[in-house]
Write a structure and sequence with these properties.
With 228 residues, the protein is of the alpha+beta class. It has five helices and 17 strands. It has one domain (22-226): Fumarylacetoacetate hydrolase, domain 2 (Alpha-Beta Complex). Strand 1 and strand 2 (21-23) form a beta hairpin. The longest helix has 10 residues, at 114-123. Bound molecules: manganese (II) ion.
């Protein structure tokens, strides 16, 4: 192969519990994946097929570092999410085999420039600049799947400056981790290093400079960042 004409980029990485780092290849995110009120009101939320968007790998923000308030927005929202890290790739992965492709789990934030997203929705334009901006994916320490059963239930919560803003349970996810992996692998061949943000429960809202975001998923871990 020809020699690179500039230095190849070092892959972004997230820290792993017990030491080491997980190199990030791509970041896929699931759209709306929590049933919210409908189910608790006795309704039957329609199980529409999940949809996906992406962030660049170097959107990850690790180690509890501050997140600079991004440009081009006046409405920066938090979305607290379970993150799945893929160890082995594949296309058309069956649900029954899907969890065998998982390296581990973490707590993460799908930070969103909501005003840009609203404009994009109205105009029928892509969400990239609303979702895939610099530092838009704060993420906590990755827990190996070998030490953790499939996280199918447990509290998922986010506090802003100590006040509870989002609180739900992983059992409220419409599409499970295994189903999400199976579905996504029908669109793209998954690869080692891919991350999947699995969607957020209700309670998303705006944050401003100086706000401290502290998320926790029971049994999985925490994520923390302060808006700079
Ligand atoms: Mn999200």
């Amino acid at each position: 192969m020809a020699e690179f004409v500039i230095a190849p980029p070092v892959p972004p990485a997230i820290p792993v519990e017990g030491g080491g780092a997980f190199p990030v290849r791509r970041i896929f995110c699931v759209g709306r994946n929590y049933a919210e009120h409908v189910r608790e009101m006795g309704g039957n939320p329609e199980r529409e097929a999940p949809f996906f968007f992406t962030k660049p790998a170097d959107a990850v923000l690790t180690g509890g570092a501050d997140m600079p308030y991004p440009p081009q927005t006046a409405n920066l929202h938090h979305e607290m999410e379970l993150v799945v890290a893929i160890a082995t790739g594949g296309a058309d992965i069956a649900v029954a085999q899907a969890l065998g492709h998982v390296w581990g789990y973490a707590a993460g934030l799908d930070m969103t420039r909501r005003d840009l997203q609203s404009e994009a929705k109205k105009a029928g334009r892509p969400w990239d600049m609303a979702k895939g901006f610099d530092h838009s994916a704060p993420i906590g320490t990755l827990i190996p799947a070998a030490r953790l059963p499939e996280p199918t239930h447990g509290t998922i919560a986010l506090r802003v400056n100590g006040t509870l803003r989002q609180s739900s349970d992983l059992s409220q996810m419409i599409w499970s981790v295994a189903e999400t992996i199976a579905f996504l692998s029908g669109f793209v061949r998954l690869a080692p290093g891919d991350l999947i943000f699995t969607g957020t429960p209700e309670g998303v809202a705006a944050v401003g400079r100086g706000d401290l975001l502290e998320g926790e998923i029971a049994g999985v871990g925490t994520v923390r960042t302060r808006i700079g």
